[in-house]
Specification:
- Helix 1 runs parallel beside helix 6 (about 165-185) and helix 5 crosses helix 6 (about 165-185).
- The strands form two sheets. A seven-stranded mixed β-sheet has the order 3-2-1-4-5-6-7, with helices on one face. It has a three-stranded antiparallel β-sheet with strand order 8-9-10.
- The model has no long low-confidence stretch (mean pLDDT about 95).
- The protein has helices at about 15-25, 40-50, 65-80, 95-100, 120-125, 165-185, and strands spanning about 1-10, 30-35, 55, 85, 105-110, 130-140, 150-155, 190, 195-200, 200-205.
- The chain is built from six helices and ten strands; from the N terminus they run E-H-E-H-E-H-E-H-E-H-E-E-H-E-E-E.
- It is globular, with a radius of gyration of 16 Å.
- By secondary structure, it is of the alpha/beta class.
- Helix content is about 35%, strand content about 25%.
- The structure holds glycinamide ribonucleotide.
- Glycinamide ribonucleotide binds near residues 14, 88 and 110.
């Protein structure tokens, strides 16, 4: 059973999907901690409800990003994770943090990467007149939202969509794809060596497993 630490900043619906599938035995893993940079994150309550250790590390208590990241890394390492999952964690992580965990650090980003790295992805897709949108599960590298994509979900953009309606529709697809990728990682099917990504022993093409 793999040890999973989830980093969050908010609601935690993706964390919930992963916790549920671990508890149901669909993922060969156990969520051993949920760590938030925000005390108000509902994700911490979700963790407590499942008797999972809930840790808050307020980033504003630190003098610099590097100081926060160093403390966060130390805290995360204390849980001896096999996998670290970013699930709505809304802080950019410094290279020192990413390098220390790079073969076992996953993120979900709400766009069809390489489109729309960064923030406000739903609004940007609508304003560009895109007809489809999606989310990408990827390994994290030092480049922002730039690591190799494992799996993407897609939804149609409807004529009357707002950023909010689109985000809600997309969220449901995230709860499908993120637990799948975590399952593959925990089963040893998905391996990232920091440069190359492979699935069942074959290199994964750019754009992910399909
Ligand atoms: C998710 O939609 C995720 O894709 C996005 O935040 C949401 C978190 O929802 N992540 C980012 O924007 C990362 N830059 P959740 O807290 O309910 O899982």
């Amino acid at each position: 059973t793999k040890r999973i630490v989830i980093l969050v900043s908010g609601n935690g619906s993706n964390a919930q999907a992963i916790i549920d599938q671990c508890e149901q035995g669909k993922i060969n893993g156990e969520v051993v901690a949920v760590v938030s940079n925000k005390a108000s994150a509902f994700a911490l309550k979700r963790a407590q409800a499942h008797h999972i250790e809930a840790v808050c590390i307020p980033h504003q208590d630190f003098v610099s990003r590097e100081a926060f990241d160093a403390f966060l890394l130390h805290k995360v390492q204390e849980f001896r994770p096999d996998l670290v999952v970013l699930a709505g964690f809304m802080r950019i992580l410094s290279p020192a943090f990413v390098d220390a965990l790079s073969t076992k650090l996953l993120n979900i980003h709400p766009s069809l990467l390489p489109k729309y790295p960064g923030l406000n992805t739903h609004q940007r897709a609508i304003e560009n007149g895109d007809t489809e949108h999606g989310s990408s599960v990827h390994f994290v590298t030092a480049e922002l939202d730039g690591g190799p994509v494992v799996l993407q979900s897609k939804v149609a953009i409807h004529p009357h969509d707002t950023a909010q309606t689109l985000a809600q529709r997309l969220a449901q697809t995230e709860w499908q794809i993120y637990p799948r990728v975590v399952e593959w990682f925990c089963d040893g099917r998905l391996v990232f060596d920091g440069k190359h990504l492979s699935f069942d022993g074959s290199e994964v093409p750019i754009g992910g497993v399909n």
